[in-house]
User: What shape does this take?
Amino acid sequence: MKIQLASSYGFCFGVKRAIEIAEEHRGAVTYGPLIHNKDEIDRLKNGFNIGLARKLDDIQEKDTVVIRTHGIPKDELKQLKVQDTKIIDATCPYVTTPQHIVAKMSSEGYSVVIFGDEEHPEIKGVVSYAENPEDAFIVLTSEELEDLPLKAKVAVVSQTTKKPEDFAKIVTELMKSRKEVRVFNTICNATFENQDAAADLAKEADVMIVIGGKHSSNTKQLHSICQRYCDDSYLIENESELQPEWFDGKKLCGISAGASTPDWIVQNVIEKIEEMVK
Assistant: This one.
């Protein structure tokens, strides 16, 4: 059986940057999981003594605090700044962009529609930058727009890891009913590239393995895309979840990985598959 990697996969710019920042600040504490990959967080903990604070009360005075890749709500950042802590901001620049857009458009009197998952840390941070919280709305489907008290002027942004075609549905629906719609495409380029590459490979593969955190939005999107073209598509966090029967009678195994998945985990998966199919 042949094993083939997608032409684009794994660590994106923002995640690489966050990992490097954490490694440069040995002994620091991240506020929230730095990225959505438990194995990589464990590596940082064991190799660089990087702690994890899940809430503000977990942060001690004089801690060095690294802000997670997905960012944090505006008021929480303010609270950190008044404490005697050193703040290192590892928020991905692609995430700070929608934060700034929401702040600007809200201050100019627009209703702001945010396409994304309400419980995702990125979206919790983005919506917090609205000047008037009553004018900011989070939606996952175009149907959710129907009963929203939107103004005539609307600005719309997207979670960085969403599918472009789903974002387009939101935009199209808004344009039917509003006089002015300002569209800001805040989907990350790495998301486009990884999704397109995964789709191309899934069309050819007999089995697809998508590697990444089970709570990672972009990894779940990759898995969903692969399932469209390859029925035997599996989402795993690491090599321990591989099952030998997945590869019975298969000729081509495709592999993709989420933006928070390091190369060392990808290589472990490849080696385990090679052992299984000998």
Notes: The longest strand covers residues 153-158. Residues 93-107 form the longest helix (15 residues). The two ends are 9 Å apart (CA to CA).
